[in-house]
Structure formats: structure tokens, C-alpha cells
């Protein structure tokens, strides 16, 4: 009891400190995007990423951004700009965004919660679930849930996988080192290198299908 009440008191003190900063949320900085500016940019993102940012299977698979972790989104936009992550489309999109616009877009996208896009093959969902929850110890593959969370929601720089388009996840894991971690700086993409190498193509497809149906 004593420990709990001490912890509560501590948390309350921290909260008081955080919220004591005068007018924190209300005062807009001069560079914050206007509501119209933000809306126009979002409409642009959604022409590719889907009307509710649920993703879209076009000529390229467009990843779901809905419910994605804001820190991850900001990290990836920076990676496109610095060409650590290669994608010609997203370089052009990202390099014109102000940091304030990126923060506002990421905060908005986090709140969206459309149903998963669906359409993934259902033949290996059981294997996908096993890989996600337990990994494959015999191939040194860790459980995805250990980092991406038991429901695949991610946290901070670790992305949400729940509801992500099957075709996007499959392609991304297959091409990992071709698309990410370019340049001399080692970034967060290095964490996924051993895992993507140690999974076979059919195991990648199985886990990609499994996460695509998580809500
Ligand atoms: C012309 C189409 C197009 C537009 C417009 C577009 N994107 Fe993208 N975006 C893509 C494609 C294609 C990818 C997948 C890149 C890849 O395969 O690595 C992507 C990837 C991303 C990613 C990485 C997602 C992940 O899961 O790693 C983020 C973040 C992103 N886009 C944000 C945005 C934002 C924010 C906007 C609007 C300002 C936007 N995009 C507009 C096509 C587009
Ligand atoms: C040790 C922690 C860790 C484990 C275990 C892990 N991941 Fe990741 N994963 C990450 C991090 C960190 C990133 C972000 C990489 C970056 O910044 O480019 C990531 C990114 C990804 C992405 C890219 C998502 C996107 O939107 O582009 C996919 C797909 C992914 N992981 C799938 C998996 C799967 C499937 C497993 C299990 C087989 C797994 N991960 C296990 C930490 C982990």
C-alpha cells in the first residue's frame, strides 16, 4: 500500500510539473500549420495512402499510416529526406514538410482507426501467429511481439504492424537492406536486419499475412 501511494504521489508531482508550463497546449507557435494547411496536406497524403490512411494496393503497395506511432513516422520521414531510406516518391513528399507540419500530420494519423485493408492469403495464418508470438528459436528469429507489442501496436520508434498491408510488409521485409540503412550512420533500421535475413520467403509471407488482420 505504502509503495503504491508513494508512486502515485510521485506521478502526480510529475504531472503537475508537466502541466504547469504556462499555456503549453493552447499557445500556437508562429510556425504551427493552419488548420487549412494541415487539411490540404492530409488530403494529399490520402490520395496515395487511402481515404482513411488504411493503405492502398496500387502499382506500389501504399502502407497504412492510420494508428501509426508518431515517433516512427517522424523517423521515417527524416530517413527519406536523408536518403537513408530509399524511395523516390517519398523523398519528394517529405523534403518540403516543416517539422511542425510533420508533428501535426503524425498526431492526426495516430488518431485514425479504420478497419484493416485485408485481402491477404489465409493459408499460413497459424504459422504467422506462431512467429509473431513465439519467434522461431531454431532459426534465431525473436518473437515480433517482444518489440512490436502483443497486439502489434508498436511504441515510439517501433512501428505498429497491426492492419498493415500484406503486400507492403512482405516487400519491405524481403528488401530490407536494399531500402533502409543506407549511408554511414547506423540507424534504427539495423535492429531488423538479422530478423529479416533469418526468415524464409514463406515465413515472411506468413507473418505479414497474420499482422495484416490484427486490428
Ligand atoms: C504519390 C504517392 C504518395 C503520397 C502523395 C504520399 N506518400 Fe507516403 N508513401 C508512398 C509510398 C509508395 C510509400 C512506401 C515506400 C516504401 O515502399 O518504402 C510511402 C511510405 C510512407 C511512410 C513510411 C511508412 C512506413 O510504414 O514505414 C510514411 C511515414 C509516409 N509515406 C508518410 C506520408 C505523408 C505524411 C504524406 C503526406 C504529406 C505522404 N506519405 C504522401 C507514397 C506516397
Ligand atoms: C528487437 C526489437 C524488434 C523485433 C524482435 C522485431 N522488430 Fe520489427 N522493427 C523494430 C524496429 C526498431 C523497427 C523500425 C526500423 C526502422 O526505423 O527502420 C522495426 C520495423 C519493422 C517493420 C517495418 C514496418 C513499416 O511500417 O515499414 C516490419 C514490417 C517489422 N519490423 C516486422 C517485424 C516482424 C515480422 C518481426 C518478427 C519476426 C519483428 N519485426 C521483430 C524492432 C523489432
Automatic annotation (TrEMBL):
What InterPro entries does this protein's entry cite?
Cyt_c-like_dom, Cyt_c-like_dom_sf, Cytochrome_c4-like, Cytochrome_c_Oxidase_Subunit
Q: Which residues form a coiled coil?
A: none
Q: Where is the Cytochrome c domain?
A: 123-215
Keyword flag Coiled coil: no
Query: What top-level branch of life does the organism fall under?
Result: Bacteria
Task: Kindly report the protein's main subcellular placement as a broad class.
Answer: periplasm
Q: Where does heme c 2 bind?
A: 144, 147-148, 192
A GO term from the CC aspect: periplasmic space
Q: How is it modified after translation?
A: Binds 2 heme c groups covalently per subunit.
- The UniProt record gives the binding positions of heme c 1 as 45, 48-49, 90
Question: Any idea which UniProt keywords this protein has?
Answer: Electron transport, Heme, Iron, Metal-binding, Periplasm, Signal, Transport
Q: Can you name this protein?
A: Cytochrome c553
Native organism: Methylocella tundrae
Amino acid at each position: 500500500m505504502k509503495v503504491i501511494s508513494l508512486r502515485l504521489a510521485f506521478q502526480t508531482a510529475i504531472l503537475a510539473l508537466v502541466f504547469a508550463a504556462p499555456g503549453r497546449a493552447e499557445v500556437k507557435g508562429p510556425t504551427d500549420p493552419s488548420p487549412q494547411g494541415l487539411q490540404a496536406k492530409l488530403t494529399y497524403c490520402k490520395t496515395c495512402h487511402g481515404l482513411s490512411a488504411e493503405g492502398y494496393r496500387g502499382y506500389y503497395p501504399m502502407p497504412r499510416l492510420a494508428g501509426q506511432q508518431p515517433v516512427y513516422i517522424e523517423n521515417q520521414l527524416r530517413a527519406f529526406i536523408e536518403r537513408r531510406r530509399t524511395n523516390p516518391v517519398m523523398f519528394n513528399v517529405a523534403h518540403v514538410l516543416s517539422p511542425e507540419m510533420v508533428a501535426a500530420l503524425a498526431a492526426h494519423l495516430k488518431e485514425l482507426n479504420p478497419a484493416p485493408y485485408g485481402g491477404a492469403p489465409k493459408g499460413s495464418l497459424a504459422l504467422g501467429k506462431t512467429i509473431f508470438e513465439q519467434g522461431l528459436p531454431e532459426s534465431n528469429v525473436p518473437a515480433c511481439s517482444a518489440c512490436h507489442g502483443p497486439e502489434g501496436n508498436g511504441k515510439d520508434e517501433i512501428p505498429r504492424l497491426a492492419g498493415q498491408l500484406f503486400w507492403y510488409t512482405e516487400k519491405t521485409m524481403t528488401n530490407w537492406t536494399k531500402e533502409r540503412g543506407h549511408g554511414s550512420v547506423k540507424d534504427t533500421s539495423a535492429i531488423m536486419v538479422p530478423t529479416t535475413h533469418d526468415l524464409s520467403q514463406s515465413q515472411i509471407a506468413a507473418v505479414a499475412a497474420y499482422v495484416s488482420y490484427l486490428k
